[in-house]
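Please predict the structure of the following assembly.
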Amino acid sequence: MTTTDHRFSATRRLILQGAATVALIGLGNPWFGLAPAYAAANDKYPEEAFRQKSDAEAIKSLYGKTAEPSDKVKLDAPEIAENGAVVPVSVSTTLADVTSISFLVAENPVALVASYRIPAGTVPAIANRIKMAKTSNVIVVVEAGGKLYSATKNVKVTLGGCGG
Amino acid sequence: MASTIRVRATSSGETTEVQALIQHPMDSGFVKDAKGEIIPPHFIQQLTFEYDGKPVFVADWAGGVSKDPYVKFAFKGGKKGDDLKISWIDNKGATDSTTAKIQ
């Protein structure tokens, strides 16, 4: 918003600034702009983690600790993704007491892609489809018994999925 | 309006496998349109699956999830004929929900 302000008339700019201020005060959340704060009311959507640019910062924001690589976390992703807009990625683990599983793409503008909460009784195995801006490490983090475990795989992207 | 959510939940006796496909643009806010203007972010933030009044799976998503998202998981229990409730909310506050019968 700020980078394009100079192109607008003074009045327009005032209105825009006013709107932005209202949004900021109302939500305390500049990133989602005018979006209502529904998610906050709905079982803690991790907004802060989804604002971090690097995978390490996102993991820290989400879990408050760091992950150690584990061969008990099995990440299945293609070697080469022809279309970065749709990359099928799945994970399964033999770890017990899994409470959360998250997918991250290190080179994406926002590293955190998806974070899943796994209540007791739910099988710690997930398949989903993610976007990749370019060739990057795909990281999956599993929270089990209060500790973090990860698996990483490099996926080559022929056509980026975030640049359109 | 037809639901944006398509779900298949299949019980194998011990576990119920769930596959969901949702119609949503999942715009990240980083992509430009043909005129070079940024397409504003518009994505599902939270997707919840409930069985027997309790959540069995909660997805927190952002713009990095592919358009028309797909997800697959399984949970222990779940009987044929029982209801599985699915609902989502996006960053603009739009929501949708549906109830699927476990097969």
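Chain A has a mean pLDDT of 81. The beta strands of chain A are 68-69, 73-76, 80-83, 87-93, 98-105, 112-117, 125-130, 136-144, 147-159.
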